[in-house]
Amino acid sequence: MSTEYLIPILFVAFAALLFFQMRKQRKAMNEQQKLQNSLTVGDRVMTTSGLFGTVVETEDDSIELEIADGVVTTWLRQAIRERVDTEVDEDELDEDDNDEVDEDVVDSSERTSSDEDSDVTENADTQKTETQNAETQKTG
């Protein structure tokens, strides 16, 4: 293959990649716009900053989210990232939380008797050495 065909082939390949990337981006933007326009009262959503809330009121370019009982905040529609499932298996969440706690927490009060014995022995040896040093300094 000659180098005279290389530049046009690279140009066509680059143009094709650019076209497909723009198409993918345009599709994602359309889906996001569709989501934002379809929001209704009662929808559970997540914002772009990761805050979860329930839609309590919608306006043309903003919505109000209840993020906790009695706590309502106002957001631009563009800040809504996705609609999330409202039904979450509470038992599954509790089970997952307990597993993480069991694996991650280490109780420092659980020491073996041999650890305690060695600490007592070390403390006694240290006190004995300090006493001997003090006596040596007094007599010296």
UniProtKB/TrEMBL annotation:
Pfam family, one: YajC
Residue intervals passing through the bilayer: 6-22
UniProt membrane topology term: Single-pass membrane protein
Keyword annotations of the record: Cell membrane, Membrane, Protein transport, Translocation, Transmembrane, Transmembrane helix, Transport
Biased composition range(s): Acidic residues: 87-107
Compositionally biased intervals (Polar residues): 123-140
Subcellular compartments: Cell membrane
GO cellular component: plasma membrane
Protein transport in keyword set: yes
Protein's GO biological process: protein transport
NCBIfam families for the chain: yajC
Similarity annotation: Belongs to the YajC family.
Protein name per Swiss-Prot or TrEMBL: Preprotein translocase subunit YajC
Organism encoding this protein: Actinopolyspora righensis
